[in-house]
Amino acid sequence: MKLNAHFFTMLLLCFAANSLLGQSEPTETTTGPSLVDRGSLLVSGLFRLESQGGALFGSDDDRSNSLSFRPSALYFVADRIAVGGQIGYDLDWADGNSTHGIGFGPRVGYYYDLGNNFIPYGTIGASYSYGWRPDFDINSNAWGLSAGVGAIYTIGNIGITAELSYNWSEQNTNIPEQFRFTDEETITADGDQVQFSVGIVGFLNSGRNTRSASTSDEESSSLIRRGNILLSGNVSFRNRGGDLYFGRDDVRSSSLIFEPNAVFFLNDHIGVGGQLGYAGTFDDEFSFHQFLIGPRVGYYRDLGNGIIPFGAVDVGYVGAWSQGNGFGSGGLGARAEVGALLTVGNLGFSGGLNYTLGTALGAGSESGNSIGLSVGIVGFIAR
What we know:
Blueprint: H1 5-13, E1 41-54, E2 62-78, E3 81-94, E4 97-111, E5 118-133, E6 138-155, E7 158-174, E8 186-204, H2 218-221, E9 229-242, E10 251-265, E11 270-282, E12 287-300, E13 307-323, E14 328-344, E15 347-360, E16 367-381
Antiparallel strand pairs: 1-2, 1-8, 1-16, 2-3, 3-4, 4-5, 5-6, 6-7, 7-8, 8-9, 9-10, 9-16, 10-11, 11-12, 12-13, 13-14, 14-15, 15-16
């Protein structure tokens, strides 16, 4: 069965590191400044560079490349009040063709520390984005407004956040004459999105201590000692409505992403775990589903200076199917990664270089490889 480009991209990218989800338990009760006091910094985001090759699109030795850079930060200008924003740049290119997208937007939030590890909050924000494809002379720009409410559950300086948000946006796309369906040079589309998401945030420059001071023994204080757990993943549900597709007014579509991962440390260096993932998109006429499952083994070494180099290998099975056109397929992939964690308390920034090899089951020569560089946020549950 022939594997389409969207599925194979999923096969390769599902092994790449995304922004990681984590938490850590303190070894003693601490008191002191709140995580949302003036001067604290709330950070999230990701960086990923990837190059894929092989029979990705039905011909031999295709290669495509992608780059994503999406940092986000909020600075607490006063107790409970944070101001900041996010920027983003996305690039996809292959065989001389490229697609670009840039975006930025401010955000203001109010955070209230209840003193029991829960921090409810509310935010408002705005955004602007611009995208273009030089080979087709197509460009578009969009602006939007958003509001959200949620809560952060903190252990140390790691926070797991759950948020319900509403977004409205308007997009204008310039269409070259050879691609027009009507006489209009510009197509304007607007719509709204309701989203529920769960992810990770990290607090920096806060006065709260996140590592126990009761021991100076390196083995006892190491984040990778036996019994600790490294968690990663994200959960997101979106429901969008408006003029999403040309010729179809007031369409609503939904998407669900569920990607929990975990590594358990068997001893002071070796972690064993796995990954599980599901991604689906569906509306009244069409749906597309993908899933991933596979084990992972890694070797981690704490240098004692906040830096933890690591190497890991994992394998996985990916399946995909759709309702509406009868498509279905599956494949196997194997991935190796080397990198390092830079830790601040129980919060860490992960950077890794990875290589993935994938094969479509039942498709003969349908296979390919991916080389990627990724940066994300990690957190530890420490016993």
